[in-house]
Amino acid sequence: HRQAQAVGRWFAALPDGEKPEIVLSSPYVRARQTAREICEAGGIAGGRRPPLIDERLREREFGIFDRLTTAGVDDETNIQMHMCYSEFGDIIEAIDALDVDVALIEASRSNMELLDDFAGQGYARSVGPGVYDIHSPRVPSVQEMAEKLRIASTKLDRRWIWVNPDCGLKTRGWEETEPSLKNMVAAAVELRKEYSGTGG
Q1: What pLDDT, on a 0 to 100 scale, did the predictor assign at position 95?
Q2: What are phi and psi of 125, to 5 degrees?
Q3: Is pTM beyond 0.70 here?
Q4: 118 by DSSP, 3-state: which?
Q5: What one-character DSSP code corresponds to residue 30?
Q6: Catalytic residue among 19, 49, 109, 135
Q7: Which of 84, 86, 106 is nearest to 165 (CA)?
Q8: Burial of 51 (C-beta count, 10 Å sphere; 0-12/13-18/19+)
Q9: pLDDT of 73
Q10: Cβ atoms within 10 A of the Cβ of 118, count?
């Protein structure tokens, strides 16, 4: 907080020809907050110009599995993988060969069409198709997400479908995230009730 403001004041004190005109920020919440504080401290256009968010600045995250292979993980460990913005049909055999327990994929913007690649391959493990686009600040309705799950259940064995957002939630604030997740859970509950008497 104080460091960001200090950077903003330092920029503001530069000669006019040397002051930056824009600040680029990754989409992560903390980065956006820091960039906004720099701008508001007077460093960029007198605090009147907000930072520009650039998706290309997103980090690649591998968490605890960084530099590890699935061979080094106990059999009891549930291994999940996340992929987005891919032509899954081109790499579906490689995805299958990864031997992960759950493939979490970006699927909401394609309205679940990407699941056709998994169905066509006969993918036999769990898939978590994203049911809402986290890159948008819009809070999706229960009905919208339930409909996406209905579509997914026509393509995959619904016993193996996980319910999740398209991607991580670092780009969203609490005011958007909490109601979106509540609606997502309500959609999952609705579908479980809907299918509870059908043997699936």
Answers
A1: 83
A2: -125, 180
A3: no
A4: helix
A5: H
A6: 135
A7: 106
A8: buried
A9: 64
A10: 24
Q: 118 vs 90, 121, 169, CA distance in Å?
A: 11, 5, 25
Catalytic-residue membership of 135 = yes
Is 129:166 a contact under the CB 8 Å cutoff? no
For 3, 43, 149, the CA distances from 109, given in Å and listed in that order, are 38, 37, 13
The C-alpha atoms of residue 42 and residue 62 are separated, in whole angstroms, by 36
The sign of the torsion formed by the CA atoms of 148, 150, 152, 158 equals: positive
Distance of alpha carbon 121 from alpha carbon 16, whole angstroms:
60
Tokens of 66: 């960084």
What does the alpha-carbon distance between residue 27 and residue 167 come to, in Å, rounded to a whole number? 12
Tens digit of each residue's pLDDT (9 = 90 or more) over 131-179: 998 888 899 999 999 999 999 999 999 889 999 998 878 778 889 999 9
For residue 125, which of 100, 155, 108, 90 has the smallest C-alpha distance? 100
DSSP H helices in the chain? 2-13, 29-38, 88-97, 115-121, 142-155, 174-195
3-state secondary structure of 116: helix
Residue whose pair of structure tokens reads 């999706």 in the numeric block: 140
Query: Does residue 126 contact residue 103 with C-beta atoms inside 8 Å?
Result: yes
